[in-house]
Amino acid sequence: MISFRSVLVYLIPVFTVALMGIAQCNPGIKKICSVDFPQFKEKIELSKNSLERSSNSDRSVAARAPMKSIDHQLLYIELTADGRQQWIRWAEHELVEVQKLMDWISEESSFRDSYLDLSEIANHILYFHGYAKQGNTEKMNNVLEFIVKKIQKIQQETCSKTESL
DSSP letter at 80? Predict the structure, then answer.
């Protein structure tokens, strides 16, 4: 016959491992606010600066190139095929990162608005992906500006709630 004690001796390590796994899956809202959001925002800002630098260097080259006619003026600087692929991969990676944040924050019922904002960021990363396929740096830049502002809003709203936790 199996005793209650032998069952506990077996189950306690199993539950401990399971709980440790769950705890590692969700870093907690304080860590998300103090580490994850700031890191994500910094990555977006660095990417935006990188895109602006590459666009500006392309503009200076385009300005020196002779224009065949006024009808062919550049409204935006198109990326090379290699540049497009790099930004497409970047967008796919960032979409995964946003999904992780959404998964973590979805477990906190008081942060429903932030979840919706993250969903909006995910949608804009999809727009960015499409603009990267087109090579449209102007619209890519606009999307990154939107994302930075949205992250700031999430940090202000969400992280101010965590200070009282």
Answer: P
Return the SS3 of 42.
helix
- Tell me if 125 sits within 8 A of 93, measured CB to CB: no
What pLDDT, on the 0 to 100 scale, is given for residue 80? 81
- What tokens appear for 50 in the block? 């990188």
Give strand pairing partners of 30.
Answer: none
- Give CA separation, 137 vs 4, 33, 95, 108, 109, in Å: 66, 30, 19, 36, 37
Q: What is the pLDDT of residues 14-70, one digit of tens each?
A: 444 444 444 445 567 788 888 888 999 999 999 998 888 876 665 443 333 333 333
- pLDDT over 90, % of the chain: 39
Partners of 78 in beta bridges: 136
CA dihedral (19, 22, 24, 30) in degrees, to 10, reads -100
Q: Cα 144 from chain centroid?
A: 10
Phi then psi dihedrals of residue 78, to 5 deg: -85, 145
d(C-alpha 143, C-alpha 137), whole Å: 10
Contact between residue 132 and residue 79 where contact means Cβ atoms under 8 Å apart: yes
- Alpha-helical segments (H) within 26-163: 29-31, 37-64, 81-106, 112-134, 137-162
In degrees to the nearest 10, what's the CA dihedral of 118, 134, 90, 27?
10
